[in-house]
Amino acid sequence: MTKSPLFGVDPWAVTQEGWDASLHEAAESIFSLGNGFFGQRAMHEETYSGHSLQGSYVAGVYYPDKTRVGWWKNGYPEYFAKVLNSTDWLDMSWSVNGHTADLALGPPTQYRRSLNLKEGVLTRQWEWITPDGIQLKVDSERWICKARPHLACIRYRISTDKACDLRWVSGLNGQVRNRDANYEEMFWKRGHEGGGPRGYVQTATAKLDFEVGVAAEHCWEFSRDRAHSLGDFVPQDWVSRQELILRLEAGDTVVLNKRVAVLSTLHAPALALQAKAMEVLDEVQSLSHEELRAEQAAAWDLLWKQADIQIEGDPKAQQGIRFNIFHLHQTYNGLDHRLNIGPKGFTGEKYGGSTYWDTEAYCIPFYLGTAPARVARQLLEYRYRQLDKAIANARKLGFKDGAALFPMVTMNGEECHNEWEITFEEIHRNGAMVYAIDQYVRYTGDRSYWWQGGLEVMVGVARFWAQRVHWSEVRKAWVMHGVTGPNEYENNVNNNWYTNYLARYCWRYTLEVMDLIRQEQPSCWNQIATQIRWSESEALDWKAKADAIALPSDEVLGIWLQQDGYLEKDQQLASELQSDQRPINQHWSWDRILRSCFIKQADVLQGMMVFEQDFSLEELRRNFEFYEPRTVHESSLSPCVHSVLAARLGMMDKAYEMYLRTSRLDLDDYNREVHEGLHITSMAGTWMSVVMGFGGLRIVDDGLALAPVLPAAWSGYAFQLHWRGADLHFRLNNQGLECLLEGMPSCTLHLYGRSVTLESGQALVIRPS
Questions:
Q1: List 46, 415, 488, 673, catalytic entry
Q2: H or E element, residue 137
Q3: What pLDDT is recorded for position 1?
Q4: Which distant-in-sequence residues (6+ apart) come within 8 Å of 606 by Cβ?
Q5: For 98, phi and psi rounded to 5 degrees?
């Protein structure tokens, strides 16, 4: 299934040509901006009274909204963490001869909005004719600085074709709410405001101790010297604003250059926030708008040199991958160990802006391949620092002796997801914590993380699995009942194959790592063994359970069963569904979904991708050909898994179909929900589709292995990998594969199944056989 683009296709831009109010909330998501520390949906700068999801977000700042459920169950989290819509720093309103510019009331005669992916700049150009016949042209651009963590810049230009009176108010507005508040609560309480040459608003969360301070400075430019009235910023009731009153003549232009500093108490004490915000503005006071614009372009250029993927001959595929890489880098920068990657990033309120297992399963590979090793390690350490709370989470559910259950959703390590079938049952997330450590060590070669926190996480997870299974006399196997696998269209099932396979892997890998630490770091092992109160009886228990855990299968079909009883369902194919019933989660009752055989996202196939080395190609093919036709791909995390596996199987049409779906999921709004925000964590899966799918990236014998293949729709593609301090560049086209090494003298790779040594600076070309 292919979709028509919502917006224009361009290799380095996303552009909306013409005004369509019905697309506005979707466009607010698509054109969002961020820098890892704060971000904002692409609301109009000026007044807009139509449907709009207002959102200005600050990383790490949240509100514990009281859990809302119909029937409280023991173990439920007390709250759901909400990412907060904070002070609106666009806050602009202007009128001409008393007519307020508001595109919901007076549509423009021309409209263009464009997101420059190469430089991280959002621009708008539009024209509007007032009821009394005055034609105004507006040209604006804004960005959130990539090189300066707390600064945003706006330039807004108004031109007129006739004489008119302009009233323009701009500033900061702290009177904001969240659309998703469970009890219509106000999440903020008033702090204080400041006025004078600069505006300032500081607000505090109604719960917890977060405070956010925002400062603004204006620089006005006039095309001609006209009499005008311009006051200071005036603080009042959560706002601080400046007003300009000006008589314009025909052909006049007036420009506002607005700079904004955004900080929270993660960066400075509450009493120092205002001074710190003013310092941010002071630092750039001598720099022109053009100089800051060039600085922004240079910062993004550096990122693109590290992470860009170039696709030749397929503009939609090219735009898709760059759009995804762009938003990943807007969401997380690796500069603050307290932060992680929320599924919506800075693009919406859904999912609470919290951390999910998506980070470990999907995002870790992206950052391993495109950033220094410290970035991925920091994401691992984020979980290690929350191990005590993972143990507390497990204890609430009746587990003991150091068993750890990492949360499905969290801001600080505490579970804050309030759907029972997820909170209590979707426990495969625990295994992702261990697999991420394994990925990190194999990719970077940095074993030190094992004894510097990693093993403690692994032991906590292994202990959880050991207590979660029970012995079945009927089956003569260890079984795990009452779980939800990655396919969330099945709840409370028994022996989900993926979850059981993960548990077995966790036991065996943890014991393997213990043995290696004993050999390589005996003093570290002794310290850890004491800390975790290790007994060799646990090792025997884990080995026994790993050897005899139930892994349901069907011998006739030659497949692994998603869970006990899956084949007893009414077996249908997704292709048999009527288009007006898709997506089924927006048209069917939950009861009907649960009774159906339809799969929301890869489940068995998730495991076969993760543990690919454990299965033959024929095993993979049988399972893929059975499960993919039953998969409706209504999770953003689904298409990329199928793309990677299809490429490995040589099913290039299916791999390409799934690649387009994952790369353009939001751009083309496949799941009809982009108005709620983008699917940030699944965007890392787009990178996996290219590099691990078409590129064939694997780790084999402590080295990189690749076997790049070329989709029929592409004339070529290129990507680079950051590998153990070196940079590797690959380009594939019909003439062959070109490889280049930088940063180390030599490197041995496995290319198409044979060992090849690259020398630094010398391009190696492998011709098609």
A1: 488
A2: strand 135-144
A3: 56
A4: 486, 498, 641
A5: 85, -5
Residue type, 366: F
Evaluate whether 500 touches 472 at the Cβ level (below 8 Å).
Answer: no
640, two tokens: 């990329």
Residue bearing tokens 């590099």:
691
Residues near 276 by Cβ (< 8 Å), separated by ≥ 6? Answer: 213, 263, 267, 268
CA-based nearest residue to 166, from 220, 245, 91: 245
238-266 in b/e form (b: 16+ CB < 10 A) is bbbbbbbebebeeebebbbbbbbbbbbbb
Contact 431, 422 (CB under 8 A): no
CA distance 119 to 143: 9
Work out the number of other CB atoms within 10 angstroms of the CB of residue 755.
11
**The pLDDT of residue 68 is above 80:** no
For 217-272, write each residue's pLDDT tens digit: 999 999 888 888 999 999 999 999 999 999 999 999 999 999 999 999 999 999 99
What is the tens place of the pLDDT at every residue in 705-720?
999 999 999 999 999 9
How far apart CA 428 and CA 405 sit, in angstroms, is 10
What are the angstrom distances between the C-alpha of 638 and each of 27, 364, 550, 686? 24, 17, 25, 11
488 an active-site residue? Answer: yes
- Asked if the model's pLDDT at residue 694 lies above 80, the reply is yes
What string of DSSP letters covers 578-624? -GGG-SGGGTS-HHHHHHS--BSS-SHHHHHHHTGGGS-HHHHHHHH
**Helix (H, G, I), strand (E, B), or coil: what is residue 218?**
strand
Continuous segment of H or E residues that includes residue 96: strand 92-96
pLDDT of residue 726: 92
How far apart are alpha carbons 607 and 495 in whole angstroms? 14
